Amino acid sequence: MDAIYEKMWNDLGMDIKTHDKMLAHLEKVYTKVFRSQANRPDGMKYFDGQIDNLHSGRVMEIKDQKDRGKKVVGIFCVFVPDEITLAADAIQVGLCAGAEVGFNLAEKYLPRNTCALVKSFFGFKLTKLSPYMEIADLVVGETTCDQKKKSYEIMNDFYPLYIIEVPQRKESCDRDLWKEEVLRFKDRIEELTGNKITPENLKNAIKTVNDRRRALNRLNMLRSSNPAPISGLDCLLINQVGFYDDPQRFTHNLNILCDELEQRIEEKSGAAGLDAARFFVTGCPMALPNWKLPMIVESMNGVIVGEEACVGSRHTRELVDESGETLEEMLNAIVDRYLNIDCACFTPNRERLANIVSQARTLNADGIINYNLTFCQPYLIETHKVEEICRNENIPILSLETDYSMEDRGQLKTRLEAFMEMVK
Ligand code: BJ8
To answer: Which tens digits make up the pLDDT trace of 42-62?
Structure first.
């Protein structure tokens, strides 16, 4: 079986030797961090399997569909509407990366003070270690933060990117611009796939993507119970897998897990103790395999009960209105839903502040961890407002700035330990 994957990776032009080493390392870390957790729900077996298959079985599955004519669209941001890709019978996968891979090569093109997320997707491309980057037929960038926007210009030399313009404000002229961009994306996807987007296939796609959001939101709500029925580590992993997996299969398996969690809640069986400090995390997205923060928090007597982030509730909270019947109505619903995303690239971005407070309260958090990637100006600058609202609402908050390296692990642990003592 491995020979089949090796051939596939070879055909994709990947660096197989380094890739083998990377997978072996990932497997070791995964076993230590995830499989060793106490009282883990049975339903996590499915998601463990998805991680085992991440660079092999799932890529093979996508390749088989590609061989039968499907196209693959790679994205770096939750502003790219899955519904449109799916309606045109294409596959959409996330390309953001959460590991310190190829940073030395990336720094030949990018300033050293670029955020880890951008350096990582650049590094994965330059080292040829991501099968998803190599298998994508179309890679979509977006004009969100300056670091992404400008790095796409350079990345364009390695493979042509399609860029979506995301406005920076939410006035009616911004909505007009955004609608134009959604329509332009629709045209590009139709051209790529040769498939027309119709009211029928778009309605189905809206339902499929909403079902995935509904399942993730269901999971999120179950975390309000004490004891938390599932760890923050596992929930982050589920959210990360959602960017790669087949949406219907993912939703089906997540709902099975949620059924089990409901049972655990009844039995008061938790992934953490009743006395664990409960944290709500807000800030930059944690792309696969960035598990650093929950790994540290949950190695102590703490549990993460929610994430206001793009790998988290910012990606799932809002559904697309399903009442539309005409193409125009459905596209308008997509435009409105996506323009509600409260990314720090917007000014002002008041909705995010209100969302943080209401989610932290709903999830019965003892405190908020404001997670920022070093050099991420939008989220670092927004920290001032986030801390201010938490002060006003009497919610304890700890702001952290970190990257993908493990060098500051001890320092983070010390700060988190002190915060834990303070909130309990
Ligand atoms: S909608 S959060 S996925 S842009 S960490 S690259 S912001 S400097 S990831 Fe994002 Fe879309 Fe917004 Fe969400 Fe820039 Fe910050 Fe780096 Fe970031």
So the answer is: 999 999 999 999 999 999 999
pLDDT, residue 159, reads 81
Choosing from 284, 315, 338, 401 the residue with most ligand 1 atoms within 8 A of its CB, the one to mutate for a pocket test is: 284
For residue 1, pLDDT beyond 80: no
Alpha carbon of 145 to ligand 1 centroid (Å)? 6
The pLDDT of residue 53 is: 97
Sequence-separated contacts (24+) of 87-92 with Cβ below 8 Å: 87/197, 87/198, 87/201, 87/202, 87/204, 87/205, 88/189, 88/190, 88/192, 88/193, 88/195, 88/196, 88/197, 88/201, 89/193, 89/195, 89/201, 90/189, 90/192, 90/193, 90/195, 91/62, 91/65, 91/66
128's tokens: 């040829």
Region 210-228: what's the mean pLDDT? Answer: 98
Atom of ligand 1 nearest to the CA of 144: 4
The pTM assigned to this predicted structure is 0.97
Atom of ligand 1 nearest to the CA of 315: 13
Report the separation in Å between the CA atom of 117 and the middle of ligand 1, taken as the mean of its atom positions: 8
Alpha carbon nearest to ligand 1 atom 7, residue:
145
pLDDT given for residue 248 in this prediction: 98
Residue 417: both structure tokens together: 């330990």
Residues framing ligand 1 (Cβ under 6 A):
77-79, 115, 117-118, 144-145, 147-148, 284-285, 310, 341, 343, 345, 373, 376, 378-379
Are residues 314 and 188 in contact, defined by beta-carbon separation less than 8 angstroms? no
Tell me the C-alpha to C-alpha distance, in Å, between residue 184 and each of 3, 94, 178, 195, 331.
41, 20, 10, 15, 12
Closest residue by Cα to residue 34 from 19, 18, 54, 14: 54
